[in-house]
Amino acid sequence: MSDGQQQKGADWERFREFLNLLVRVQSDARWRGKIDMSGVVQQTLLEAFQAGEQLAGADDGQKAGWLKRALANNLADEIRKLTTARRDAGRERSLQAAIDESISQLEMLAPAKQPTPSQEVVRAERLLQLTRALSSLPETQRRVIEMHHLRGETLSDVAAALGLTRPAAAGLLHRGLKKLREILEKDLTNA
Question: Which sequence spans correspond to the domains of the chain?
Answer without folding.
Answer: 3-113, 136-191
